[in-house]
Design goal:
By secondary structure, the protein is α+β, with helices and mostly antiparallel strands. The chain contains 10 helices and 13 strands. The protein has one domain: set domain protein methyltransferase, domain 1 (Alpha-Beta Complex). The protein binds S-adenosylmethionine (SAM). S-adenosylmethionine binds next to strand 3, helix 7 and strand 10. It comes from Penicillium bovifimosum. This is SET domain-containing protein. It holds the Pfam family SET.
């Protein structure tokens, strides 16, 4: 059922540093489909430990920091940069739309003017009130959606946003966003209802947000974003067995949607670790030797924090609403639970 999709050259330092190169995929990384998990990555030939398997750039990325004015972790808003914007050298929005919006310098601010122009009025009008009314999580979710729409806007105008489509890569650009899993059926009715309200209040097509999509389409994008977005942390996620002494992945500094990296399924015994580089590009690295035909999985959470089967499954249920069917969980589960899940039951 698997097909070879990606043929690329070997990664080079120059490639990893190039901002216009949308993504890099190891030639032995292939896409296939699993009847339960959906799309997945597999390898077609042996992959030695420590090999870089994927470098993907975000289609939408937002900073996630407390007190942006005091924080050196704020990222540059220019998608072609996304480096840290230290407080003493950063440039802010002349329209003072939001303290979390910054650029590492005036060159990046100038290059990002079209993309930021799409979000600026919306942020100025709604950011403070959404934050105070609904809190940081919902504000972040809505801002990621606005930034997805902003990237789509730039891509449609065919401007040099650094997000241009490569015809050989079906997961890149807005087409990649459209291919993400997640729909109204994935999420409980009360969440979908609340998101429907958000769309009507804050995300409708209009002069403030000229995206040309219907409310139903925007709601679908939220359902996809919630099933696929990544938190960015200063240290890698997914080493197992957990090294001793335990070193956590650190404090989240950004949230992002990666069209290709989103194809990776979760395992509680992952063979791939993931971490964003200094440009916010998501890098997948083999954390052990991987054999031909094996699935490549990352961990969606910090394995040092959730150790037993129940807490791991509960975490995934909370975050993504699925029952983990990775090798480790299936091995650890009592037989009657396994039969119940196979019959379509859901763990509560
Ligand atoms: C980020 S997407 C991964 C790619 C996805 N399989 C696809 O088809 O696009 C996350 C979704 O994949 C599925 N998934 C990922 N890991 C899984 C696992 N360990 N067990 C069961 N389903 C899994 C769940 O449906 C989850 O909501």
């Amino acid at each position: 059922m698997s097909q070879l999709v990606y043929i690329t050259t070997e990664p080079t330092q120059t490639h990893l540093e190039t901002k216009t190169n949308p993504i890099w995929i190891h030639p032995h990384l292939i896409e296939s489909t699993d009847p339960i998990k959906g799309r997945q990555f597999r390898v077609s030939a042996p992959i030695p430990k420590n090999t870089v398997l994927l470098v993907d750039r975000p289609y939408s990325i937002i900073p996630v920091v407390d007190n942006p004015t005091d924080n050196d972790d704020l990222i540059c808003s220019n998608p072609a940069c996304n480096r840290r914007a230290p407080r003493n050298t950063r440039k802010t929005c002349p329209n003072t739309c939001l303290g979390d919006v910054a650029w590492c310098g005036s060159v990046c601010r100038g290059k990002d003017s079209l993309r930021h122009g799409f979000e600026c009025g919306w942020l100025k009008r709604y950011a403070v009130s959404i934050r105070s009314k609904y809190g940081e999580y919902d504000f972040g979710m809505l801002w990621i959606i606005v930034r997805l729409l902003a990237s789509r806007h730039c891509q449609r105008l065919d401007l040099d946003s650094g997000l241009e489509l490569d015809p050989g890569l079906k997961c890149n650009g807005w087409r990649g966003i459209e291919s993400l899993c997640g729909s109204q059926e994935t999420w409980p009715c009360d969440m979908v209802k609340s998101w429907t309200g958000f769309v009507k209040r804050y995300l409708l097509d209009g002069p403030l947000l000229p995206h040309g999509m219907s409310a139903e389409q925007v709601l679908h994008v939220i359902c996809q974003e919630e099933a696929n977005s990544f938190g960015l942390y200063p240290r890698e996620t997914g080493r197992f067995p957990v090294p001793w002494p335990v070193v956590g992945r650190g404090v989240q500094y950004a949230g992002a949607v990666y069209p290709t990296a989103s194809m990776a399924n979760h395992s509680c015994w992952p063979n791939v670790v993931h971490k964003a580089d200094e440009n916010g590009h998501m890098v997948f690295t083999a954390c052990r030797d991987i054999f031909p035909g094996e699935e490549c999985c990352i961990s969606y959470f910090d394995l040092a924090e959730y150790t037993d089967l129940t807490s791991r499954r509960e975490r995934l249920r909370e975050l993504f609403r699925f029952v983990c069917r990775c090798e480790r969980c299936v091995d650890e589960e009592p037989e009657e639970v396994s039969e119940w899940i196979d019959m379509g039951g859901f763990m509560s």
